[in-house]
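Per-residue structure
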Amino acid sequence: MAAVVGFLRRVQGGNVDTVRWRRRPPRPRLSRDRLNPLDLRTDDELFERYRFRRPTIMFIQDRKTHPSKRSLALSAMIQLLVFLRFVATGAFHQLVGDAIHISKATAGRCIRRVASAIANVAGRFIRFPSGQDATNVKRMFHAIAGFPGVLGCVDGTFIRIQTPTENELIMLNKLMFNLIIFQMTCDANFMVTNCVAKWPGSCHDSRVFRESVLCQQFENGQHNGILLGDSGYPCRTYLMTPYNTNDVRYRERYNSALCRTRVLIEQTYGILKRRFPFLSIGLRTSPERACQYVITCVVLHNIGILRQDIVSLDPRDLIIAGPDVDEINHGNNSGFGYRELIARQCFYY
């Protein structure tokens, strides 16, 4: 320090007060251009690799922008593309990072950061119909098979995960696979209107629905309409299930119409898993993070439907499952009489 002061006195003629210490302004943060695929590939090539075309990718990026405090940071667009590459392939983080020349750790941070940002806006894109939207949904379902007052179709599916470090037994299903169960409802346009992703593989679909917020809303009369489900669900005044026996003609017509309508939720699962194959392959992550990835993919699915950026599918590729064998009865038969009333009024001809 003494040497610096002596130097300044010689330069300024001995008057140290005349010297002003000026801090050098910080350098602006830079974003590396790591061969941005948007500038190198066509819309069809982007769709094959990232499951969305350029306008939809830009739409998603505008709604999840998050600044970085790092110098030479990855841009928000590159981070989004890393995440889309992951959900479109289900590859290891190392392979996803190699495709864009970043490290495995950086790819993992990008994937987690983008998934969290998209999941935070899930309420804007996953909404159960109400008001005029509910009226429009009822009209579309009525045009399909003649069911009155249908607000959606409900069903559950599962995703395989790696063996968790805690509570391993509750994740096992009857086939001894580690799974998480998630349940969705959809409208006639394959839009997901409700999603629950938090239950372990040992739970039944009926319990997932019974403990859901949507079930409580129907119990409290917040929705004026009904849901359609398979025979794995209990029959309620707001949840119609198929008959076990088709001994009467109108019951046969009722079951046929219900299956034609309820197949929409099976097709929605098929579209979702076709767009994001890692949901079919399985996730090598913790249950909590797997649930977040599921919600994120549902949000992206709805965005694709809204933007008409959809997957072209062969109908044979869709997952179409029949009703369960056993009908669930939880001691409340109030729905059976209402089901009989609907079957007689709408399908007795």
Notes: The chain is about 45% helix and 10% strand. Confidence is low (pLDDT under 50) at residues 315-333. The two ends are 101 Å apart (CA to CA). The longest helix spans residues 249-275.
